[in-house]
Amino acid sequence: MPTLLTPPVDANTPPNGVPKVAGRSAFAPIAADIAEADRLFAESLAGYRSPVAPLIQHLRHYRGKRLRPALLLLTAKACGGVNPHHHILAAAVEMIHTATLVHDDVLDEATTRRHIPTFNAEWGNKVSILLGDMLFTQAFHITSRVDRRACELIGGATNRVCGGELKQVCNRGNWHLSEADYFDILDGKTAALTAVCGRLGAVYAGASEDVADKMETYGRCVGLAFQIADDLLDLTGDEAKAGKTLGTDLEEGKLTLPLIHALNTLPSTAADELRHLIRSDRPDKRRKVAEVLTRTGSLAYAKRAAEEFGRQARAALADLLPSECKHILEQLTDWSVKRER
Amino acid sequence: MPTLLTPPVDANTPPNGVPKVAGRSAFAPIAADIAEADRLFAESLAGYRSPVAPLIQHLRHYRGKRLRPALLLLTAKACGGVNPHHHILAAAVEMIHTATLVHDDVLDEATTRRHIPTFNAEWGNKVSILLGDMLFTQAFHITSRVDRRACELIGGATNRVCGGELKQVCNRGNWHLSEADYFDILDGKTAALTAVCGRLGAVYAGASEDVADKMETYGRCVGLAFQIADDLLDLTGDEAKAGKTLGTDLEEGKLTLPLIHALNTLPSTAADELRHLIRSDRPDKRRKVAEVLTRTGSLAYAKRAAEEFGRQARAALADLLPSECKHILEQLTDWSVKRER
């Protein structure tokens, strides 16, 4: 059972999408630690029998590049070393991320994920909602093996993730969303979990509060850069290269940074025309929107914002002693800004 | 803001459905403590602004008799006294219960709860799923104010609740569910939360491990008795008296104790006929099923099972010193078995 969710971990053939540094997986130095976190993840769910067991098995299709456990473990190693607390916490953050994916697929009515049927497509929304709930609660339960502070940090971060997602859904179709509200949503739904990965990696490696603060800043800024790059990709990326459907933010009524910038920059008549275009069902809508965003400098504005968060993330690493993992964390700031998916 | 979710607490006019002992609300001795837990519940959600704030306000319609906080606080008082840890934990268990109600209404496609539109009816399934997630995570976050053990107990219990619900949904339409599997589901979805209320009340009142074990048994047995009585009500109760739609377990493909007993007792041909009847859409199905269950002694069997759990719950209280709250906990065992809703 412990290997149920553990696909082969091999530093030379990293899972799809894992960034490379100097020609090999950026996660190679922590491959054994990720494998241990995977083992704890699987072990904590191994008690379920039929008819629940097939769901647990299907979970392996939801596991991607393990970016959040990797951030936590690389930070730990750069701050002093990985220990068993880190493995538990890495399993917990991956479980929380997985729970949000299971619920996201219900929210988005998605039928496939990585070319495999989603839980909702295969077992229906009811099973998916309860499976996500079970994963959230299991994550908290395993976190309680560590200490009160870990529960506080993970509880607080996860609450901000869910609060951010709730704010986002409540603002769907709000074509007047402010930049401040956009960043408030982003800070919750994406950056709270990457930020806590940085802090947890540092705290449980015995780092000072000052270093822990900086590693939290690192995680937050990487998360923000990553999400802004993702939002840009959704507007201007190439579907074949990205390997997923793009333009979904527009379809779902989500305003992202380039659009918010354009709506704030354009004279009010032109801004209303842009709102009209966004809500239309013109077949060339995505191209037309991109044209406007290029003309207003809004794509460049969002790109600069992502790069600025990348710079802030890199700056937060300045005090760490030189090491392989510090170097990888630095490289990840570039990857988060430039990634094609 | 702190009073947002706090309807008037008045020992003489308890919320609908609160049991009475000696003519007044069974929760009267802890009314101020329930009010304090309500205040903490509201305070922890007070930071949300528009457009999320109306959801937080609507939550007050989801709050019923506060059975779980009351169990926790009455146990605390019977074991030595209520302190601020208990208020936080009472708020947390009520928040978890509320999260399950919000998600249950999505699962059941319910449009009203206590004559008020459900979240899913008013804001849609997406908002409801994320609101439930946010409440689960907020409950864990406030629990972390107490200590590691509280996080472990609440994390473990909530995980069993969600696991039990998941098993139940995965077994919908399984007309061969065993009695052992039925009790396994019940032990999770209903009894795990009432059991942990008993344990938390005792532990944080400074009770010994032995007393804490007994209070957990008390909570578990009350929860089991309550749920079996509820399942019986669904099959044989009077809708007008119960104030809700009955017969829903049959419609949703859920086998409960009386049916499992009948299917195990009847010769196989008659058992298949009963399965056929359950799956039919005869207008007189509920009455016909009740007739079979009376003939096989299955209603009496389930009633005895509920009474036996009531007796076990009462026995678990034996070592407590006499007090008003001990007396109320004893009376609640009768109420949980006999209740009309």
SSE blueprint:
The structure is a homodimer.
Chain A: E1 20-21, E2 24-25, H1 31-44, H2 53-58, H3 67-79, H4 84-107, E3 112-113, E4 116-117, H5 119-123, H6 125-143, H7 148-170, H8 179-203, H9 209-236, H10 239-242, H11 248-251, H12 257-265, H13 268-279, H14 285-295, H15 298-316, H16 324-338
Antiparallel strand pairs in A: 1-2, 3-4
Helix pairs in contact in A: 1-4, 3-4, 3-8, 3-16, 4-6, 4-7, 4-8, 7-8, 8-9, 9-15, 9-16, 12-13, 12-15, 15-16
Number of domains of chain A: 1
CATH fold field value of chain A: Farnesyl Diphosphate Synthase
Low-confidence stretches of chain A: 1-14
State the CATH class of chain A: Mainly Alpha
Annotation keywords:
homodimer, 341 residues, mainly alpha, two-stranded antiparallel sheet, globular, disordered N terminus
What would you note in describing this structure?
With 341 residues, chain A is an all-alpha fold. In chain A, 68% of the residues lie in helices and 2% in strands. In chain A, the strands form two sheets. In chain A, strands 1-2 form a two-stranded antiparallel sheet. A two-stranded antiparallel ribbon of chain A has the order 3-4. Mean pLDDT of chain A is 91; it is low at 1-14. At the A-B interface, α4, α6 and α7 of A face α4, α6 and α7 of B.
